[in-house]
Design goal:
Elements lengths: L2 H7 L5 H9 L3 E3 L2 E2 L14 E3 L2 E2 L7 E6 L21 H5 L3 E2 L7 E8 L2 H8 L7 E8 L4 H10 L6 E8 L4 E8 L6 H8 L3 E10 L2 E2 L9 E3 L2 H5 L1
Parallel strand pairs: 7-11
Antiparallel strand pairs: 1-2, 1-3, 3-4, 5-7, 5-13, 6-7, 8-10, 8-11, 9-10, 11-12
The structure holds uracil (URA).
Length: 229
């Protein structure tokens, strides 16, 4: 690939910014300073050093975001802020996209990547990748609802765990585990039980868990262990 493309994709700045780096002789390829942006490199075998730091090419990148409410799970939108707006330049250059969608008013764990195959695998109903949500519900959820989640829906069985019930306020805090992710699935299942979701947070997706150190709107790259899992 072209050296300037490699540098931009490595997060060193825009095309014109990396041109400046090259001009100043700050970029070295296999031990020699290189100034031409058009230089062709082999990103898998050539050693690219910028300001003494060796760059490692990443074909695929993975971002774990604590999605806030009010931001849509899309890569572009004319009216709303998107989850892509919350990430860094590298994410946009690498053209990451959300692995599945969370509703605009849902918050919590969202994985973004440019690895289409992985995204497909995590979303495929055949793979049974569990998605765990915590929901605040208007209405008292009960054992009949637990049974309904386990058997009555046309989707794959889902697990409903009732964490708290406030008899006075008539509200419940529940955990819901799904292996499918149809449109508004949690909200619709709760609605079928005659109750309403008032707050929805995704806690995990397969082996990935919401990182408690991430504030709403913050992200980090996946760790090596998470990538492995
Ligand atoms: N189910 C929903 O209803 N909304 C979400 O955002 C995710 C799952």
């Amino acid at each position: 690939m072209r050296l300037d493309k490699f540098l931009v994709e490595s997060g060193l700045g825009s095309r014109s910014q990396v041109k400046q780096l090259l001009k100043k002789g700050q970029v070295w390829v296999n031990g020699a300073a290189v100034t031409s942006a058009k230089t062709q490199i082999d990103e898998r075998s050539d050693q690219i050093v910028v300001d003494g730091q060796t760059l490692v090419y990443e074909k695929f990148v993975y971002y774990l975001l604590n999605k806030p409410k009010g931001v849509i799970s899309a890569t572009e939108d004319d009216r709303h802020k998107t989850v892509l707006d919350l990430l860094d330049d590298t994410a946009r250059q690498k053209e990451v996209f959300p692995v599945g969608r969370l509703d605009v008013d849902t918050h919590g764990l969202l994985l973004l990547t440019n690895n289409g195959q992985l995204s497909h695998a995590m979303l495929s109903p055949k793979r049974h990748v569990a998605k765990v949500y915590q929901a605040q519900v208007a209405g008292l959820m009960d054992q009949a609802d637990v049974e309904r989640f386990a058997h009555d829906f046309t989707c794959q069985p889902a697990q409903l765990d009732i964490l708290e019930r406030d008899e006075g306020a008539k509200t419940s805090l529940v955990r819901i585990t799904l292996s499918e992710g149809k449109f508004h699935q949690v909200k619709r299942m709760v609605l079928v039980c005659g109750k309403e979701v008032t707050d929805l947070q995704r806690l995990s997706m397969g082996p990935l868990h919401l990182d408690p150190s991430l504030e709403l709107g913050q992200w980090r790259r996946l760790t090596k262990e998470e990538m492995q899992s």
